[in-house]
Amino acid sequence: PLSQHQLRHLSQQDPDGTSRERYRTEDEGYEALAAIISADPNLLHRNELRLGVHGRFMDQAASVREAAVDLVGRFVLDKPQLTLQYYPMLSERILDKGIGVRKRVIKILRDIC
Asked: 72, CA 20 to 30 Å: which among 21, 48, 86, 90?
């Protein structure tokens, strides 16, 4: 669920509500993807998915970048091969503009080491 702060922020930027709809759709998409990957974490080895995740790591919206980092972080600790594959992408995000993204990356990297 969206917090009051997030709703206020979205309504200030987009009075017609299109960003709100995009945010809800991306959130639902993230949850669906996380459920699919939970069922088969080996999907993260697929090049198409890796490229898609990398694209989300570069998204303009900090919330999207943070969700992508969170998604990868859920699985890299359990699968050492994934750690090797996604470590370079995660370490790049340590310099992210979004403080939430940086905090999440630091937590993941701390858990890896």
From this structure: 21
Report the sign of the C-alpha dihedral through residues 62, 79, 74, 111, in that order.
negative
CA atoms of 54 and 52, how far apart (whole Å): 5
Q: What is the pLDDT of residues 62-83, one digit of tens each?
A: 988 998 999 899 888 888 888 9
- Listed residue (98, 88, 97) closest to 112, CA to CA: 88
pTM of the prediction? 0.71
3-state secondary structure the chain: CCCHHHHHHHHHHCCCCHHHHHHHHHHHHHHHHHHHHHHCHHHHHCHHHHHHHHHHHCCCCHHHHHHHHHHHHHHHCCCHHHHHHHHHHHHHHHHCCCHHHHHHHHHHHHHHC
Please give the Cα distance from 37 to 71 (Å, whole number).
Answer: 9
From the CA atom positions of the chain, what is the Rg in Å? 15
> Tokens in use for 1?
């669920």
